[in-house]
Amino acid sequence: MTFPIPHPLWMRFLSSLLILIALFSVPSVDASLFAASGPRGAPDFGNTNAFTNATDYVGLNVNGAGMRPLKLADLNGDMFVDVLGLRADGVLQAVFWNTLTYNFSLTATVATGVRHAVAADFNADGVTDVIAFADSNATLYLGSREGSFSKQGTLPSYPRWSAVASALVFYRYGNLVPDLLLLNKANGNRSFYVYTNNADRPGTLTYSTWTPSSCTVPSGLSPAYFDVNGDCLPDLVLPCAGSSGGTDIRVWYRKGGDDLLASTTPSASWTPFSASATLRQLVFGDFVAQGTMSVLAVGSDGNLHYVANAHGTGGYGDRCGFSGTPSLRDAVTAPITDSSGQNAVRLNASTQLHLIDYNFDGLPDLFAVSDGTALMLKNTYSNNVLQFQAQRAPTFNTLYSVQVTSPAAAYDTDQTGRQDLVLGTAGGTQLWYNTIQQSNAFLTCMVLDAAPYQSQSRPSSESAGSTSLVAYQSKQGLQKHACSQCPQSGSAQSIAACQCFDGLNAMLNYVEELAVGAGHAHRSWTNLLPNSFAVVYPLSADNAQQWKLQYYTKKNIGSIVGVIIVLASSMAVLAVTIVVLMWRESREDKKARLARDPIYSFSS
Q1: Beta strand pairing status for 428-434 and 51-53?
Q2: How many other C-beta atoms lie within 10 A of the C-beta of residue 438?
Q3: For residue 279, with 0-12 CB atoms within 10 Å meaning exposed, 13-18 middle and 19 or more buried, which class applies?
């Protein structure tokens, strides 16, 4: 008797069934992906507001009073975002998030007499440090896991703060050891003070200057650091006054571990804006879900000017492998309509834009602040047309009642996959909780600075400019979302944490690919679960192109039990099928055996 072998299709069916059940069983995240919260937990406001003031609940009414936010970053290495802020009297302080008590329960004074500050892991120990700028000196303060800061030393040849127009954290040699670029206001915004970190002795910065060829950065604009040409590696981007008016975009491409400032001549240059356009602010993001970082500008005419980036991406498994020619298109107006989608809305020339995906659709929305008044602009990109819609529903009125006096930012307060708002007000720093009742599928990616990877005290300091690209299938086909971490880190107008948040509500099943570029290397991971947090650890400054990935996703016993039940049921069905096939085979064998029996004749 022969025994039938299960058909390979059965095995494929069972494998696919198990994967699909696991994917569709991933729930909305309601607890932190990094650590268990204490008994207090997240607030339940029980209202229908789009955003609700959680300042008192999280203790910022005390610890954030009189403080304007300068930077959101993990300042004590616990994987949670803290607030670096500046008081009116020049006191620079850190306010630390405590997930066990669910509030900002600890503060630490970093320095006094401060005008501005930047945050990065300058000594490559895995904990974020701070450089505080005073009128006549700039000092490096080393962070610690205990929430304290120690003075390391002052920057050499530092000009007075009055000579600095803006600051930028970048990686001159692509080694993920942070360097610093200061725009020289004393020279008419035509040159830079450069502080280069010593990769062999991180935390030791040397001084030099750099003057790009024929570039004057317009007043109010600042340099940026993000991927322009599609290899996921951050490039240096300078807005320069055009020779015939307007603003040019000039780019220095990252080429392996070469010196990014080796040449004063840009790798590429475009003139996307009209000669008559006066720009007040530039923001950078993937506004149309094409997998490319593009440019959005606020003009003095009250319009948004959109510059598409048409560089393309690589194929499956190598989205960062694009090797074509990048191209910035000519600027077009991105219309803003009212809630009905009819009447045009114009912005004040002083408007400051802050990116937020408040509705988890993967398209960056805009939190606009003009003369203290806030307005949420929903990204309604469709049919190859980028436009925004002003959200004036009553559910936003409470948020709009706040007078915002300093830069704002969206971030995930407790690392559960939510987009809240940190606001600077006359009374201090406020936190507004996203309380919209909606689905909230997401993926957050964070690439860290180079630091030794240790099992007991792993690094937790985000890198600037590192790019992630998330690809998945939706009803509209393949979607690709590109994001560069805090491309204007160090700018007084950009305080966002260096993390990339991607809303996945349009996703049909699972994350097809996560591609990441940092330093001077890139790679991809495929077939990932949503509602997760991906943390990429470069091994060291000497080996910044080798990484470890830790993928945090929510534990769900109910889903596991469900998978086991369905799998067991499927195996039972398969077992019954095999028994039936064996019985049928036995009958066929018996018939065949009887048919072969000889027939004897007893006739005489």
Answers
A1: antiparallel
A2: 14
A3: buried
CB contact set of 328 (below 8 Å; sequence gap of 6+): 228, 249, 270, 272, 295, 307, 308, 309, 310
CB 484 within 8 A of CB 502: no
How far is residue 542's CA from residue 538's CA, in Å, rounded to a whole number? 10
Q: How is residue 508 annotated by DSSP?
A: S
What does the domain layout of the chain look like in residue ranges? Answer: 51-434
- Give the whole-angstrom CA distance, residue 419 versus residue 106: 23
Per-block mean pLDDT, blocks of 10 residues, the chain (604 long): 45 48 44 73 89 97 96 95 97 96 94 97 95 97 96 95 96 95 96 96 96 96 95 95 92 94 97 92 95 94 94 82 84 91 84 96 96 95 94 96 94 92 96 92 93 73 95 92 94 92 93 92 91 88 77 66 66 84 80 64 53
Closest CA to 536 of 460, 484, 455, 454: 460
* 18-27 per-position pLDDT tens digit: 444 444 444 4
CA distance 440 to 1: 56
Q: Residue 307: CB partners within 8 Å, gap ≥ 6?
A: 249, 272, 273, 294, 295, 296, 297, 328, 329, 330, 331
CATH topology of domain 51-434: Methylamine Dehydrogenase; Chain H (2.130.10)
Write out the DSSP string of 407-451. Answer: EEEEE-TTSSS--EEEEEETTEEEEEEE---S---EEEEEEBPP-
Among 462, 411, 286, 467, CA closest to 361:
286
Q: Which two tokens stand for residue 601?
A: 């004749």
